[in-house]
Specification:
Length: 376
C-alpha cells in the first residue's frame, strides 16, 4: 500500500494545506476584481476556510490520533481513498455556482457522518469514552453543511452568517480542548520536566466558558452578555496557559509556536471583550490562533506519526513567523483602511509563505514510508 494511504493524517494534511494555498489568493482576486466565487463570494471564503481547511485538518488529526487513543486500527487504504474523493467532490461542489452547492453540502455531510461513525465505533469497542467528544463534533459539522446549503438556497444570508459563527467557535472549542491535552504534554516531554499540574476548576472553567460563548453568540444574545462571557473565556484560558510555563519554550520552535497560537486565541476573546470590531477578533483567532495552531500541530504530528525525529527541517521556523505576521497584517487592514488592500496582500503573502514552506518540506515526508519500515 502506498504510504500516503496508510494513515489519515497524510492525505488530509496535504489536501487541507494545498487547498488553503489556492483558496486565499483565489478569494483575494475575487474580492478585488469583483467576481463572485461559487455564486456567493464572501460566504464561499468563510465556509471553505472553515470546512475545506480547518475542519479537514481536524478530521485528519482525529482519525489518526484515535488509533493511538483506542488501540484500534483506523481507516486506511481504499476506505481512506474514498473519503478523500468525497472531500474533493465537496470542494468542487462549493466552488461551483448554484445549484451545485448542494453537491458540496451532500459530500460534506457524507464525509463527516462517516468520520463520526468511524470514531464512534472505535470509542465504543475500546470503551475509551473520553474521546466520544469528537463524535458530536463531526455530526455538527455535517449538520452545519446541510443547514448552510439550505440557508443559501433560500437566500437567508443572516441565517448563513449565524451558522458560520457557530461552526467557527465550535472549531475554536475543539482547539481549546485538544490544545489543553497536547500542548503541555508535548512541552513536558521535550523539556523533560515534571508533568504540568492541572487544576480541575480552571480546566473546567476554561472549556465550559468556551461552550457558553458558543451558545451565546449562536443565539444572538445581547452585546453585554457576549462581552462578559468573552472576559471569562479569556481570563480562564490565560491562567490555564500560564500554568503551562510558556517562558520555558522560547528556544524551541515546535513548542513556542503552539503557545503563541493559543495566545492569539486568547487575544481574540480579549478583542471581543473590549468591543473591537468583530473582524479583528475573528481574524486574530482564525489566522493567529486556529491556523498557526494547525501549522504547529501538523508539522509536529507529521514527523512523529511518520517515525521521524521531532526536529524541524531547514529554516522551517520561518513558517511560524510568517503566519503570525499574516495575522498582524490582517488586523492592520482593519485599523489602517487607507492601506486595506496592501495589508490584505501582505497577509496573504505570510499565509502562503507559512503553508508553502510546509508543503515544500513535508510533501516528501507525507508521501514516503516510515524510515523504520513500520506501517503508518
Amino acid at each position: 500500500m502506498p504510504a500516503v494511504w496508510q494513515m489519515p493524517f497524510r492525505p488530509f494534511f496535504l489536501c487541507a494545506t494545498a487547498f488553503g494555498l489556492l483558496a486565499i489568493p483565489l478569494w483575494l482576486s475575487s474580492l478585488l476584481l469583483g467576481m463572485p466565487i461559487g455564486g456567493v463570494s464572501l460566504q464561499w471564503h468563510v465556509h471553505e476556510m472553515l470546512m475545506g481547511f480547518a475542519a479537514t485538518v481536524v478530521l485528519g488529526f482525529v482519525l489518526t490520533a484515535i488509533q493511538t487513543w483506542t488501540g484500534i486500527k483506523t481507516v486506511q487504504g481504499s476506505t481512506l481513498m474514498l473519503m478523500v474523493l468525497v472531500w474533493v467532490c465537496a470542494r468542487l461542489g462549493w466552488l461551483a455556482p448554484a445549484p451545485w452547492q448542494w453537491l458540496g453540502a451532500l459530500a460534506d455531510v457524507v464525509l463527516f457522518t462517516c468520520a463520526a461513525a468511524v470514531v464512534g465505533r472505535m470509542v465504543y469497542l475500546s470503551r475509551n469514552w473520553r474521546n466520544a467528544f469528537f463524535v458530536p463534533v463531526f455530526l455538527l459539522f455535517a449538520l452545519f453543511s446541510a443547514s448552510y446549503a439550505y440557508a443559501l438556497a433560500n437566500k437567508q444570508f443572516a441565517m448563513a452568517q449565524e451558522l458560520q459563527y457557530f461552526v467557527f467557535y465550535l472549531i475554536v472549542h475543539v482547539v481549546l480542548v485538544v490544545g489543553g491535552r497536547v500542548v503541555p504534554f508535548f512541552a513536558d516531554r521535550r523539556l523533560q520536566r515534571d508533568p504540568t499540574r492541572r487544576f480541575l476548576l480552571l480546566e473546567s472553567l476554561a472549556l465550559v466558558s468556551s461552550l457558553v460563548f458558543l451558545v451565546v453568540i449562536s443565539v444572538g444574545a445581547n452585546r453585554q452578555l457576549l462581552q462578559l462571557t468573552a472576559v471569562v473565556v479569556a481570563t480562564a484560558n490565560l491562567l490555564r496557559w500560564l500554568t503551562w510555563k510558556p517562558w520555558q519554550t522560547l528556544k524551541i520552535p515546535l513548542l513556542w509556536s503552539l503557545y503563541l497560537a493559543y495566545a492569539f486565541i486568547i487575544s481574540g476573546f480579549v478583542a471581543t471583550a473590549v468591543q473591537l470590531p468583530s473582524s479583528i477578533a475573528t481574524h486574530l483567532i482564525a489566522i493567529g490562533g486556529i491556523s498557526l495552531m494547525i501549522l504547529a500541530m501538523i508539522s509536529r504530528v507529521s514527523l512523529g506519526h511518520s517515525g521521524r525525529p521531532l526536529e524541524l527541517p531547514g529554516k522551517f521556523p520561518l513558517a511560524y513567523v510568517a503566519l503570525a505576521a499574516a495575522a498582524c497584517c490582517r488586523i492592520l487592514a482593519n485599523l489602517l483602511p487607507e492601506y486595506y488592500a496592501a495589508m490584505l496582500w501582505l497577509s496573504a503573502a505570510g499565509w502562503i509563505t507559512g503553508f508553502g514552506l510546509f508543503l515544500y518540506h513535508y510533501l516528501p515526508i507525507l508521501l514516503s514510508p516510515r524510515p523504520d519500515g513500520q506501517p503508518g
